[in-house]
Design goal:
38% of the residues lie in helices and 23% in strands. It is α/β, with parallel strands linked by helices and 177 residues long. The protein has one domain: 3-Layer(aba) Sandwich (Rossmann fold), CATH 3.40.50. Strands 1, 2, 3, 4, 5 and 6 form a six-stranded mixed sheet that branches. Strands 7-8 form a two-stranded antiparallel sheet. Strand 1, helix 1 and strand 2 form a beta-alpha-beta unit. Helix 1 crosses helix 6. The longest helix is centred in the first third of the chain and has 15 residues. The structure holds flavin mononucleotide. The site of flavin mononucleotide has 23 residues, from helix 1, strand 3, strand 5, strand 7 and helix 5. Flavin mononucleotide (FMN) binds next to helix 1, strand 3, strand 5, strand 7 and helix 5.
């Protein structure tokens, strides 16, 4: 039977959904059944053989619903391959310093759900479109001097998805589709 993979996302204004969809499209090329779902949806988590979980970053943190998803499903998730990814603006410049900063965003996640050990963490630049933001977020991004625009690097996102694909399927010896 074909393996079934869940790509779950937490978003505020949508850019993380498109990253989740791009990851799912690559996983599908490997012959797996893939579902893309919001962390808000009610899911029968035990239907999945692997999970990719991604969240936007707001003020240095994964969105609370992503962490809640992990907490809720922790007992099952610790038994299957799980990968994390994040959409943020710090990764508009992929430097060692910025990667370290963004990896620290995961500290509270790892502390809250230490038993779920991700096989990989994808660190991706996201998008800031001021037209989609309310007044408070607009003020906040001005305060943190965030660059405005779409910085999602689709080649990098797809490349990461193809690296994690065999691991998610529990077939680490499969290097190529
Ligand atoms: C109010 C606000 C706060 C943000 N805080 C951070 C941050 O602390 N660090 C960071 O790297 N990116 C930060 N970002 C950038 C978002 O993580 C990025 O725009 C992401 O792509 C948004 O995802 P979404 O469109 O799925 O909501 C922030 C964006 C907004 C609007």
């Amino acid at each position: 039977m074909a393996k079934k993979i869940l790509v779950a996302y937490a978003t505020r204004v949508g850019s993380t959904i498109e990253i989740a969809e791009a990851i799912a499209a690559v996983l599908q090329e490997w012959g797996v059944e893939v579902e893309v779902r919001s962390t808000h949806e009610r899911l029968d988590i035990e239907h999945y053989d692997g999970v990719v979980l991604g969240s936007a970053i707001r003020m240095g943190h994964w969105l609370p619903e992503a962490v809640e998803f992990l907490q809720k499903h922790r007992h099952y998730l610790k038994t299957i391959p799980v990968a994390y990814f994040t959409a943020c603006i710090t990764m508009t410049e992929d430097t060692e310093e910025n990667r370290e900063t963004v990896l620290h965003y995961f500290d509270p996640v790892m502390q809250t759900v230490p038993e779920v050990r991700p096989i990989s963490i994808g660190l991706f630049a996201g998008e800031i479109d001021t037209h989609k933001l309310g007044v408070m977020p607009r003020i906040a991004i001005k305060m943190i001097h965030a660059p405005i625009g779409d910085y999602r690097n689709w080649a990098k996102i797809r490349s990461w998805a193809s690296v994690i694909a065999p691991q998610l399927m529990g077939e680490p010896e499969m290097l190529y589709p």
